[in-house]
Amino acid sequence: MRCVLTYSLLIMLMAVGPVAADDVLAIKADRVETVASGVIQNGIVVVRNGRITAVGADVDIPDDATIMDVNDKTVFPGLINPFSHLGLSSGGGGGSYFVSGGRRFVRSSGGSSGSNPHYRVVDELYAHQEVYTRALQAGFTTLALSPTAGTIAGQGAVVRPCGDRSEDMVILESGLLMSYFSAGQAQAQLRSALESGKKNPTSTDPRIEPLSRVVKGEMPLFIRSSTPADTLHLLKVLKDFDKVKPTLICGPQTVLVAEQLARQKIPVILPAAIDNEPDTYNQMNVAYTLAKAGVKIACHPVSDTVLGHEDFFRQMAQLVKSGLDRDTAKRAMTLHPAEMLGLDYRIGSIEKGKDANLLILSGDPLATDTRILRVIIEGKTVYTP
Fold first, then answer.
1. Which entry of 77, 117, 131, 206 is 20 to 30 Å from 362 by CA?
2. What tens digit of pLDDT does each residue of 244-266 get?
3. For the chain, which residues make up each domain, given as ranges?
4. Across the beta sheet with 297-300, what order do the strands follow?
5. Are the beta carbons of 179 and 153 closer than 8 angstroms?
6. In the CATH scheme, what is the code of domain 2-78+350-383?
7. How far apart are alpha carbons 31 and 35 in whole angstroms?
8. What is the CATH T-level fold of the domain 79-340, as seen in this structure?
């Protein structure tokens, strides 16, 4: 019976489609955490056609609106995970060949030094997976799914974790270009790839077109760099491509190059973890240290699993308890990842004109005992416990 109920819940949640054109919703709450403009006490959020049309303490409620009265609750933007492989086979990028844009390509060999800019996660996306349902229940309304293999690993997709078909999940088919960087061969390969995009700005070749978009600043470049030395070499490469919009994905040792990252205004994605200082047992809050240095940060779950996503609020609360500024923490869960993905015009905060991706919480989003009572995507309730 348990399997039947779980599957039924999965189908119910994944089948949620776009909000009906005539749906109007007014949410009345004790606190509206806009993230972009602070907290509104006794706030009202008005939603029409899946978009926020008004937010404030003194807002006229349309006559045709359905009123959702949650006066003792908190409204918070839907969470955004900017770096995940959730639900992807082999983490995305596995197999000896792949299909992109209806064409079959042989995957570049060479392990971590492979180059597959034409590979797209969206072509291997499968909607009906419980991992997406569970991520949704954990408050994530947006996932940036990235491939894992290669210096130029391919194009990541930005998706909603709900929809009857893969097409219904997709926000951006090609939301980012993913790179796994290290000094040496990979460094030369990244430079060569970016040069090819720069020299062929109007190319329609699927192997070059995404590189051209990156060089022109039309698609963000997400780069995984493991060590501070690798990061310094990366910064030298990026200086020659001034329109590229890079985001660094990194580990705890990045604090050693925080000053350089802040100077070049390169944002960082990192796990919501308390780490140890190199070669010691002393704990350090990497998110706090980077933010204090002036680096824009976004956080993702410590573990890219269902359990990791379900524990994310607690992880962020721990970072705040250990020194991270509360407002910075809230932005690191919502608005900052939206900005890194170039989607802050649409998601990441509660503002007029943005998608109504909202969470109804029992209390403070950074309190360990707060529960998710409702998840709303584009104005439509997709989960209640």
1. 131
2. 999 999 988 899 999 999 999 99
3. 2-78+350-383, 79-340
4. 79-84, 140-145, 152-159, 170-181, 221-225, 246-249, 268-271, 297-300
5. yes
6. 2.30.40.10
7. 12
8. TIM Barrel (3.20.20)
